[in-house]
Amino acid sequence: MNKSISNNALPNANYIRDRIRTVADWPQAGVMFRDITPLLQDKKTFRLLVDIFVHRYMDQKLDVVAGIDARGFILGAVVAYELNLGFVPIRKKGKLPFDTIAEEYELEYGSATVELHADACQAGDRVLLIDDLVATGGTMIAAANLLKRLGAEVVEAAAIVDLPELGGSKLVRDQHIELFTVCDFSGH
Description:
30% of the residues lie in helices and 34% in strands.
């Protein structure tokens, strides 16, 4: 796999980016929220988005796809289905009904905790980790740490959007986690 890919150079990256809605001052003042729901609402755009990920990973040896609560569930579950793999949800604290392990992390506007079922994957499992975007990197790193604590290998982390000005993609890569994103919002 290519290390450190964040591209507006990918075919269709601009098409995808142009269909992401920006909501100013949500969930709090000063935050420019990148809303992927328009990507999901349009059947052509949603199919293209899924196909970008499926084509990237279809020849990789993977055991499971892990998606991060909540928008990572949408893409992650579809990609897992298309790759004929199982899906593992990484949830916000208090949402999983069985024995869990937890990891706290910092957001650009606070802190949070994610959890994973203690039996979600096995030692040696090769995992694709998916979320909708990389902002400060805290969520992605916390999720990867949970998987690693269970003995799994995060083959690559993937997201639709990189927000490089927040520094998260650099932090993810500094943790030796390969990262793929479809598009970024640098300078936007």
